[in-house]
């Protein structure tokens, strides 16, 4: 088991696999996170250990900040633990971890709403879509001009030409206030 985990960790961190990337992306950290959570879950199924449980709970909670789609992982992981062990101690520890998880997400979304006027965890899908448009130099001539974004992208391409979508958001801060993907 340790050999398989070490091999997968090496593959996730392998520098040659990241050679063609300009920046370290979340895919690498996401792979490491999932492999580590599964490894710790298997260890906890075999023998319940508090140190391993706390590390796994921390990784499950931090995983949602890495990828919002991981929001359900703690429920699945702690559900599996409770189902396998069927002990009151494991049930209480899992319940407390899920309460802590929910509390952290609640505080984080409230902070986002207060400081950034966004009610949610993260709004990265708009930036990913914009990055694909800029990097692949996709044509936007036949797209509708929702909220003036078409004109902003055309101006940005003419003036700056940098395919980094965050530069568009920095140079045109009005994009932060609208959800163009869902308009």
Outline:
By secondary structure, the chain is mainly alpha-helical.
In words, what does this structure look like?
The chain is mainly α. It has 8 helices and no strands. It is elongated, with a radius of gyration of 21 Å. The model has no long low-confidence stretch (mean pLDDT 78).
Describe the structure using short key phrases.
single chain, 183 residues, mainly alpha, 66% helix
H/I helix tally: 8
The backbone outline, from C-alpha atoms, is elongated
- Listing every helix as H and every strand as E from the N terminus to the C terminus, the arrangement reads HHHHHHHH
Category from helices, strands and their pairing: mainly alpha
Strand content: under 5%
Percent helix, as a range, is 55-70%
**How big is the Rg?**
21 Å
**Number of beta strands:** 0
Q: How far apart are the termini?
A: 48 Å
Uncertain ranges: none
Nearest-integer average pLDDT: 78
Protein topology:
Blueprint: H1 2-13, H2 26-46, H3 50-66, H4 73-85, H5 88-116, H6 125-135, H7 149-159, H8 165-171
Helix pairs in contact: 1-2, 2-3, 2-4, 4-5
